[in-house]
Batch of 2 targets.
Target 1
Amino acid sequence: MGAVTVSEPDPAVFLTGFPGFLGSALLERILARGDGPVACLVQPRYLETARRRVASITTDLEGIDRTDVRLLEGDITDADLGLREGLEVLEGVDEVYHLAAVYDLGVDPDLAEAVNVQGTEHVLEVTERLDVDRFQYVSTCYVSGRYDGVFTEAHLQEGQSFNNHYEETKYRAEVAVQERMADGLQATIYRPAIVVGDSRTGETDKYDGPYYLLQLLLAQPSRLSVTFAPPGASDAELNVVPRDFVVDAISYLSAREDSAGEVYQLCDPAPLPVSRFVDVLADAAGHRTVSLPTTKSLARTVSQRLESSPLGIELEPETLAYLDHPTRYACPKTQRALAGSGLEVPPFESYADRLVEYVRRNPNVGDEPMV
């Protein structure tokens, strides 16, 4: 008898943003609840990384094997997503999760436009052509820009200014999604706040955002470390959430039929003021700190010089805008939807030490985005 050819099962779910930090964890949740097979769009340069992560994920899940994940080479910046097999490979898909984006506060405007805006438009076009049942989209709380006040799930187009091209392009991408929702697309939007590592293990694959503050502390003597305190920092909040909460919340909410048509902000309803956040981070690192009052322009100059100095301290100047960020985030709709699920944002104080320990044990993790 000849060899029997086993064909790959048709995918039911299409996921972008793999093998990224959130995308990898979300793929595991989707497979674990039995919603596969899953087709993952992967840029050719990340194909080997994607294969290794699929092997790790499927090994850890009982009853799941590698045939439950299909890796498709492509790119959201291309028409038809650059799929070599064509869109026919996705004909059986009834749910799309769009996570792919360039997360970099200092991103070049052309790159941000191509990935965050045009890429989202391309995914939306493919979604409509496939006539899927559900579209799950990961946005960000920072579509708020520098909105002066409390920003909830009901807010979006408020005439706000933006700190950087990342915020502005994610805003425009969400506007595009909400326009499709108004025309009947069954979609759900998730807006995470600033995402840091896992609250249980500290694991992350990129040191950015609050990690720049931590690296600044760790590069200085523990007996006295200096941090920046621009005007307005005393009134600002730093809204941080760990990866496991974000992914667990998306997994839970996306499985509910009544979440279609909703926007959920995945933020901390009781965030720390910037000054307290720095103190907690310093305590976890075992550092004594003093905040140096300064203007943002001076702090920006200092951060640029620190990066080019022999110390080589990574300090993205764009992060300084969040030390006096005027927006406060509220998530009443999310809290109601998660009530009784056991899912809630853990206090930053409860896991800051794990983030610090992970950074100390893994000093070679970089801050480059996956683009």
Target 2
Amino acid sequence: MQITNEDYQLFKPLLFSLGYRMLGSVAEAEDMVQETFLKAYQIDEERVKNKKAYLCKIMTNLCLDLLKSAWYKREKYVGPWNPEPLLLEKLHALDPSEKVIQKEGLSIAYLRMMEHLKADERTVLLLREVLNFSYSEIANNIKKSEENCRKIFSRAKQKISVVEGESLNYEENKSIIDRFIEAFQMEHTDTLLELISNNVTLYSDGGGKVTAAIRPITSVTNVLALLYGIIKKAPNDLYFRVNSVNYQPAIVIYINGKFHSIISFYISDKKISEIYLTMNPEKLHVY
């Protein structure tokens, strides 16, 4: 297949968006994008009627193959598994071609919920909701009937319905996080209880590389106790800032001038319902 530079610039963000959502890993998604283009170069041009659909089909199949080994690795993973955060230093200065990835379904909460989907459910959901493929195109992509694809889509939507109440309003969420930080620093418990759900859960991902809770922490009392415990043990040169992570405000923490961890949030009904503390150094990169 002939791939021009224009094709590459046009389809690369689209393929990355698909791969990142399927894999929850920036590095793996980028690898699969490159592999997709390499495979496309080897395809007979006459076999391709729609470049976008064909490239997405290659990308989907590569990601599905990778997921088979990824699931095995995640069964052996130490502690909770959080998707790799996508730390964006310049939220409002993206190239127009990259804005295709600025859609719903990129939050850490959504990506984490995707882990509960089977491979075909994940694929159908993404092709339908992210890429707006018709059921006919999806059926051809994954070699299942249109009717079956509709059922798979419906089943997938039911499984992730819990995150459909997530607030994606950046400024409103930033206001909540700013209040959370201030109340936390001042130890204003009443304000914290207003901002955090009673049933809040914290997922601490160290991947066995650094010290982290190996089980989810539940209840506002336990979550706050853990966070205060971490702060008390932190060195004096710790500093943080609120930045865009997966197009939502998150707390980015530095120690000794080095990238240390990211705290992301799932906010619903103006309350923090879940907290994702990612400390695995293999998942901490700036893009």
